Amino acid sequence: LKDVCVITLAASSYVSICGGFNNSNLFTKAFINLPPPGTEINLQDQFLKARTVDTGSANLPQISSIPTPNLKLWDKFLSSTDPTNHRRMDQFDGFDHSPNMDEAMKWVEPESEDRRELPSSELKKNNANSGQACFPMREDILAGMDKIIVKVKDDQKQVLQRQKNQLGKALTKYLEIEKQLTQTVADVQKLQVGKINWNLKDEKFPQIERFNHLTLGDMQGILSMTKSKTKIDDVQWMGAEEKEIYKALAEHSSELQKKYDDVLRDSWKSWRKYEALSKKLTSQGEKVMIAERAFYNTYARSEFLEGNNPCKSFKL
Length: 316
Prior knowledge:
The protein is mostly helical. The protein is 59% helix and 1% strand. It has 14 helices and 2 strands; from the N terminus they run βααβαααααααααααα. Strands 1-2 form a two-stranded antiparallel ribbon. It is elongated and about 80 Å long.
């Protein structure tokens, strides 16, 4: 396939073309926004132009004529953490029990009980000794950049080193916020797992007890349907058995609402902390990807504008 130009729009395990940032689809917009007829431009130039414009999306547009720096590491980073808030609420409210957060914490280990109980002076000493050891993914990405910097032309080394340092700072702050957010998620989940037993009992419909451990999200949906005065028999997408279950749950809506409100009230502070940290994490995630774009653009334009390849030969 030497004579073929391949463009990949996204990371292998994380697609945020329509993600959490307001400008997260700018690469796609810019790439398909062709210049006026008669303008001489090739596929590689169009790709680089689009990647330069797209400073915000958490994704990895790739072109076969230019090796993507740290491709495997960025793929791993984007598949394990969540810079654009694409799936964060699923991890938090119980809709999704997938191990995404566990995967992310392989790089950002939570503080142990012993560590939290250390005096502040001892913690400070430990931090000074550990450096960035608690964020090995950060170190892997920066080490990969060092391997690239030594290979480029001398006049580009200083620029790329400065951009690598900016990325390192952005990654450190991002992973620190993620660590706080993950602990907040764990605190709320611990509270809710202990609290949520809806205590449903119904002699006429004993099957209702199977729903005593519904997540907050599922219970919110049931209570919302009850409040909307929806006639269950008119709901086309429900089967007969499901309708009977919803009717039985609706008869207990008052007690369920009280229990639901109690859980929310008890976890209110952590919810608010989560919301604040989540906004900070999304904002910091954008800064991480801006730094990735800056490094890529400098590297690509310094090394791959000369010479012929299929991506340059294909004229738009």
